[in-house]
């Protein structure tokens, strides 16, 4: 039976749209722009060109820490301009709250779609799309509300789901705490202030460790447990295949970014929503995870260079006290933010290969769930040869949207190979470099999905 658990989007909420504060519209000399507010408190925005092609694109934005919480209906202004020129209508909400707001985001996005229909009439085609955390929101809409859309596009999305994300975020922090000698709490953080203090304390340990060969090797090991790539920011020089020092230097910056962004402050916010700690490492074999990591050769080489025993450090991780999750928190995160892999409409998922925050291996987790659920023919995945999180060009994003559109129109996937996607990107903007490539990510190290109830590592 198809998993159809709906995140609360009540009929009463939709019926009260007409009683919400009136939307404001401006046309100037171009597209019609509308700003409004939903009964939930979320704001929304819409942009509709003078000559609408009948397709509305429902955009789900990425994680917002707050306090600012603006509505968004496109990933960036350049992409937005190209889409409006192409005749597409755009819509998107702010979500009622910031943070890990999936229980607000999904109903607010659907309510925004309802408000769009009320204002502009029914669309001939509705495509859901989103970036980063918005890719998780988009995938939740695709799985749980397929009747509302015709297809979906995730860009650099957390398509591994919430439980898998937080488990995989725990591992590098656990390795750093254990091997660098820290007593910072990793879970059950009582406040944002406590989370910031813990992040700063462990980051200081990382900074100190970076000054020694052994410390650099241990940072590389922690990075490997999150599959942090060795080229992960557009400002970095792409290191040679065996330039282990340059690779580690790049990872060092990304490890600190992970600690500052996700491992503590965002975790604390998510724990508050879930009602406790939703991740664990009991029973985890870190030697096995390292063996499956995309950067295991670098780790081995750096340990050898430092004269440090990798076997001994892995044994230290085995002996260290493990972290147990709160079952109710896991259940909440699973129910709201993990996936079955069951698709009823086509989905295209696109990732850069050098993403340090949401590693490209999340695509392996998505493929695993979708294949197990028997929905493989509805999924296609594509990869852009660039470093950084969500560092797509406008043309690359349009190429992906056009490929999804063709699948919806014809009922068959066509033109999702790198050559075709690069041709689509060139057609959208001839001045843009073409960077789609053939790529096969290594396994996601801590998968968890609702299609594998007996295999939740």
From TrEMBL:
InterPro entries: AB_hydrolase_fold (IPR029058). This is Aromatic ring-opening dioxygenase LigA. Transmembrane segments: none annotated. Residues 410-439 are annotated as: Disordered. Residues 1-22 form the signal peptide. Keywords: Dioxygenase, Oxidoreductase, Signal. Gene3D superfamilies: alpha/beta hydrolase. GO terms for molecular function: dioxygenase activity. SUPFAM superfamilies: alpha/beta-Hydrolases. Residues 411-434 have a biased composition (Polar residues).
């Amino acid at each position: 039976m198809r998993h159809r658990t709906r995140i609360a989007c009540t009929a009463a909420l939709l019926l009260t749209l007409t009683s919400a504060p009136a939307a404001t519209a401006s046309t100037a000399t171009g597209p019609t722009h509308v700003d409004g507010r939903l009964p939930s408190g979320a704001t929304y925005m819409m942009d509709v060109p003078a000559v609408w092609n009948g397709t509305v694109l429902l955009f789900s934005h990425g994680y917002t820490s707050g306090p600012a919480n603006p509505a968004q209906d496109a990933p960036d202004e350049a992409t937005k301009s190209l889409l409006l020129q192409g005749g597409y209508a755009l819509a998107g909400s702010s979500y009622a709250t910031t943070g890990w707001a999936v229980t607000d985001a999904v109903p607010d996005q659907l309510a925004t779609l309802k408000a769009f229909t009320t204002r502009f009439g029914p669309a001939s085609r509705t495509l859901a799309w989103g970036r980063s955390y918005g890719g998780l929101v988009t995938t939740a809409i695709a799985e749980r509300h397929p009747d509302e859309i015709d297809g979906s596009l995730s860009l650099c999305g957390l398509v591994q789901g919430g439980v898998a994300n937080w488990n995989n975020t725990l591992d590098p922090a656990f390795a750093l705490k254990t091997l660098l000698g820290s007593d910072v709490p990793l879970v059950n953080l009582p406040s944002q202030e406590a989370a910031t203090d813990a992040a700063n304390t462990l980051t200081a340990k990382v900074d100190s460790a970076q000054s020694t060969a052994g410390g650099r090797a241990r940072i590389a090991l922690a990075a490997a447990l999150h599959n942090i790539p060795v080229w992960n920011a557009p400002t970095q020089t792409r290191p040679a295949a065996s330039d282990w020092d340059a690779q580690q230097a790049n990872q060092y910056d990304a490890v600190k970014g992970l600690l500052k962004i996700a491992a503590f402050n965002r975790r604390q916010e998510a724990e508050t929503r879930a009602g406790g700690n939703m991740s664990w490492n009991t029973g985890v074999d870190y030697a096995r995870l390292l063996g499956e990591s995309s950067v295991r050769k670098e780790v081995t080489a750096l340990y050898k260079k430092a004269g440090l025993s990798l076997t001994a450090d892995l044994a230290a991780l085995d002996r260290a006290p493990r972290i147990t999750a709160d079952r109710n928190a896991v259940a909440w995160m699973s129910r709201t933010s993990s996936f079955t892999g069951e698709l009823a409409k086509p989905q295209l998922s696109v990732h850069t290969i050098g993403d340090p925050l949401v590693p490209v291996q999340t695509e392996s987790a998505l493929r695993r769930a979708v294949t197990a659920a028997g929905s493989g023919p509805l999924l296609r995945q594509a990869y852009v040869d660039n470093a950084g999180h969500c560092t797509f060009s406008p043309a690359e994003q349009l190429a992906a949207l056009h490929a999804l559109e063709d699948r919806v129109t014809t009922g068959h996937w066509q033109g999702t190979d790198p050559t075709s996607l690069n041709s689509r990107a060139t057609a959208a903007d001839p001045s843009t470099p073409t960077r789609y490539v053939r790529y096969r990510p290594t396994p996601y190290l801590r998968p968890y999905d609702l299609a594998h109830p007996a295999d939740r590592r």
